[in-house]
């Protein structure tokens, strides 16, 4: 796996977990990583907390934040979405293109 994909995946998951601890008031969190049929690394972080706000205010305090999570995916040609779940909680889903290179 290219180092850029490894770093992006690690940062997306860790920032998602930090957000859950700081904001979600969740009891359960699941993290899923898998290669999909489109040759992308699919990342899902799902919690059962209070859910992401409908309107998100940009943070002026710095930090990685949701914008940086999205930018990490976009830098690799991927995408990231944040979803408020009807059952409560939030899903962060990122798709990172992955090209297997033989070395």
What would you say this structure looks like, in words?
The chain has 103 residues and is α+β, with helices and mostly antiparallel strands. It has a single domain (3-97), classed as Heat Shock Protein 90 (2-Layer Sandwich). It has helices at residues 3-24, 65-75; strands at 29-35, 40-47, 79-84, 90-97. It has a four-stranded antiparallel sheet, covered by helices on one side. Helix 1 packs antiparallel against helix 2 (65-75). The chain is elongated. The protein starts with a helix and ends in a 6-residue tail after the last strand. The mean pLDDT is 87. It catalyses: ATP + protein L-histidine = ADP + protein N-phospho-L-histidine. InterPro entries: HATPase_C_sf, HATPase_dom, His_kinase_dom, Sensor_HK_TwoCompSys, Sig_transdc_His_kin-like_C. Residues 11-100 form the Histidine kinase domain. GO terms for molecular function: ATP binding. This is histidine kinase.
How is this fold's topology laid out?
Elements: H1 3-24, E1 29-35, E2 40-47, H2 65-75, E3 79-84, E4 90-97
Antiparallel strand pairs: 1-2, 2-4, 3-4
Helix pairs in contact: 1-2
Domain Histidine kinase: 11-100
EC number: 2.7.13.3
Catalytic activity: ATP + protein L-histidine = ADP + protein N-phospho-L-histidine
Number of helices: 2
CATH architectural label: 2-Layer Sandwich
Strand order of the largest sheet: 1-2-4-3
CATH class reads: Alpha Beta
């Amino acid at each position: 796996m290219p180092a850029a994909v490894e770093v992006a995946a690690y940062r997306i998951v860790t920032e998602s977990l930090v957000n859950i601890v700081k904001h979600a008031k969740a009891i359960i969190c699941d993290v899923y990583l898998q290669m999909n049929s489109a040759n992308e690394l699919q990342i899902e972080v799902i919690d059962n907390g209070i859910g992401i706000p409908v309107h998100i205010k940009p943070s002026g305090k710095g930090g990685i934040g949701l914008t940086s999570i999205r930018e990490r995916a976009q830098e690799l040609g991927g995408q990231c979405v944040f979803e408020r779940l009807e059952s409560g909680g939030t899903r962060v889903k990122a798709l990172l293109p992955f090209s297997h290179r033989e070395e």
